[in-house]
Design brief:
By secondary structure, the protein is α+β, with helices and mostly antiparallel strands. It contains 8 helices and 6 strands; from the N terminus they run H-H-H-H-H-H-H-H-E-E-E-E-E-E.
């Protein structure tokens, strides 16, 4: 318990140190720069920018989901195309067999050998011929049945292919809509930030850090970590954490899955893929993974944030996460309680 408390205190001190090191926070360096927009404080601008990026995050999730579904539908269409080719080859083979049987019957005067023997006056030949006749009839019946089944299969494949094409087209439209929304929100946020003076931009980063620190401090003060058992990570969890922390410093880019940049769920999904476990691509889909209580969380678990599940980070222990925050920021460490927690999920449960 002391170790966990020391870890939490260490993270708190780390956050506080980062804040103290931020430009303008030390005594005697008050900011005199004008506010960026008439009637709006820098804090209000920060909140507005943060809200725009959150909306962009929601649209990014929608884009990623549509893209993932599009890949699935494309793979299904390829699979169906292969089945159609195999089915057509099968029909060709069955027709060749039926043609061969018809030609043999023509050469024997219109009667198959079995039928000719069945008409024989020799009792032994008659019985043998009757048996061969029944076998021939069954073979012909089986051939026709198989031909019909294969043709039915091809008709079903055509229906399925049409359905998958329609879904693929719908996903394409969703992708375009979501992409436009992402770009609009990011552009609006960047325009707001671009109007700030250099001093104000530094202060904006400081305000972000302060907000995160306050949220983390409030979360720790609430006793949220008091019951945390500090369970050891699974072997896969260790590999996932190692991968995710190895990406620290790389930029957030919406829709990115590495290796040079990531969005929030791109980082977590790739980290677990590197650990040998494929998980859903988006934070909203990752929310469907098996849930665990906060007191039971261990390194490698994913923490889903906000009511709409539009952000995700990976718990690394001692009350901290690694995550890709937003456009304009890099993969970094922060407090697990620096944002509103919706759920904790375990990919390798």
């Amino acid at each position: 318990m002391r170790k966990r408390r020391r870890g939490s205190i260490a993270l708190t001190l780390l956050c506080a140190t980062a804040l103290l090191a931020s430009p303008g926070l030390l005594a005697g360096t008050a900011f005199a720069a004008p506010e960026p927009q008439q009637g709006k404080s820098l804090e209000q601008v920060r909140e507005e920018i943060e809200d725009l990026y959150r909306q962009a995050g929601a649209a990014t999730d929608a884009f990623n989901l549509a893209e993932s579904e599009a890949r699935t539908q494309s793979a299904k269409i390829v699979e169906i195309a292969n089945l159609v080719v195999a089915g057509q080859d099968r029909i060709t083979s069955l027709k060749d067999r039926a043609g061969a049987a018809a030609r043999a019957q023509y050469r024997s005067g219109g009667l198959p050998p079995g039928a000719q023997l069945a008409l024989s006056n020799n009792p032994t030949q008659f019985l043998d011929g009757s048996d061969r006749l029944r076998q021939g009839e069954k073979a012909t019946s089986d051939l026709l049945s198989e031909l019909n089944r294969t043709q039915d299969d091809l008709r079903q494949y055509a229906k399925e292919a049409t359905a998958h094409w329609e879904t693929l087209e719908a996903n394409r439209v969703k992708q375009e809509t979501s992409k436009k929304q992402v770009e609009e929100k990011i552009k609006a946020a960047e325009e707001l930030e671009s109007k700030l003076e250099a001093e104000q931009k530094a202060r904006l980063i400081q305000l972000e850090q302060e907000a995160q620190y306050k949220a983390q401090a409030a979360w720790l003060s609430s006793g949220a970590m008091n019951g945390v058992k500090g369970s050891a990570a699974s072997e896969a969890g260790k590999r996932a954490v190692q991968f995710a922390t190895g990406q620290i410093g790389k930029p957030y880019v919406w829709g990115a899955e590495g290796p040079g940049s990531y969005d929030c769920s791109g980082l977590t999904s790739q980290a677990w893929l590197a650990a040998g476990k494929r998980i859903p691509r988006t934070s909203q889909e990752q929310l469907r993974l098996p849930k665990v209580a906060i007191k039971d969380m261990r390194p490698g678990d994913l923490i889903i944030y906000f009511d709409d599940a539009t952000h995700v980070g990976m718990y690394i222990g001692d009350g901290a996460i690694v995550h890709a925050p937003r456009p304009g920021r890099n993969v970094t460490l922060t407090g697990a309680g620096s944002m509103p927690i919706k759920a904790v999920v375990r990919p390798d449960a």
